[in-house]
């Protein structure tokens, strides 16, 4: 495995662990319903919570990890060739799609949870009753799990694509010395060996004279 692959995987894996850890920390520090107070019947008072900063930093770390993976791998749609029928190529394509899917969901959950932890004195009235919004349990934890899954799938996708490319280059390098090109052969014809002329006496054949 090349040094570049190891560095990229290490950096992306570290950012994924940071995003997941901050997501779990934001889950434990989120504002609970019991922590919301009412100064008046139509005003909700939220306490200060570090879940806002934790969620935003987790979303930023996850986004940076996703950008690094995709920049290091390149555009998957621009790759063409016979390797697309390989099983490794199919695995890489599946990991690529699922990684982006989990990334989008995790990123939106982190931003939504962070935004709901930044409310101060807001209330909503429905059918004559006032409600105060808080983050549901499991939002940040689910985002943390999805962040970790997105990073792991991105690393698998990156390693698979890189190994496939290196394998193709290695095969081409070994095949080039043995097959430099198409040899153009010269047509072979039987050689004609000159022989001495044979003289035949004129009386050997019957001759007919036409008058």
Task: Outline the structure in words.
The protein is mainly alpha-helical and 211 residues long. Helices cover 57% and strands 6% of the residues. The protein contains four helices and four strands; from the N terminus they run αββααββα. The chain has helices spanning 3-29, 51-73, 87-116, 139-178; strands spanning 37-40, 43-45, 124-126, 129-131. A two-stranded antiparallel sheet has the order 1-2. Helix 1 packs antiparallel against helix 2 (51-73) and helix 1 (3-29) runs antiparallel to helix 4 (139-178). The longest helix has 40 residues, at 139-178.
Helix content: 55-70%
Structural class comes to: mainly alpha
**Mean pLDDT score:** 75
Distance between the termini: 99 Å
Largest sheet: 2 strands, antiparallel
Provide the fold topology:
Layout: H1 3-29, E1 37-40, E2 43-45, H2 51-73, H3 87-116, E3 124-126, E4 129-131, H4 139-178
Antiparallel strand pairs: 1-2, 3-4
Helix pairs in contact: 1-2, 1-4, 2-3, 2-4, 3-4
């Amino acid at each position: 495995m090349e040094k570049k692959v190891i560095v990229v995987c290490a950096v992306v894996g570290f950012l994924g662990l940071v995003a997941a850890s901050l997501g779990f920390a934001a889950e434990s520090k989120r504002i609970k319903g019991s922590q919301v107070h009412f100064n008046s019947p139509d005003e909700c008072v939220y306490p200060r919570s570090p879940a806002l900063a934790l969620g935003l930093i987790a979303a930023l770390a996850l986004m940076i990890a996703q950008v690094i993976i995709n920049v290091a791998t390149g555009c998957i749609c621009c790759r063409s060739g016979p390797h697309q029928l390989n099983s490794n190529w199919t695995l890489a394509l599946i990991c690529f799609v699922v990684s982006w899917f989990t990334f989008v969901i995790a990123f939106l959950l982190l931003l939504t949870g962070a935004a709901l932890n930044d409310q101060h004195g807001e209330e909503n009235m429905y059918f004559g009753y006032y409600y105060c919004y808080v983050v549901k349990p499991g939002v940040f934890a689910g985002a943390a799990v999805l962040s970790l899954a997105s990073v792991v799938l991105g690393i698998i996708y990156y390693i698979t694509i890189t190994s496939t490319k290196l394998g193709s280059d290695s095969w081409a390098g070994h095949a080039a010395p043995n097959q430099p090109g198409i040899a153009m052969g010269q047509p072979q014809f039987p050689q004609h060996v000159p022989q001495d002329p044979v003289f035949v006496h004129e009386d050997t054949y019957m001759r007919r004279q036409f008058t």
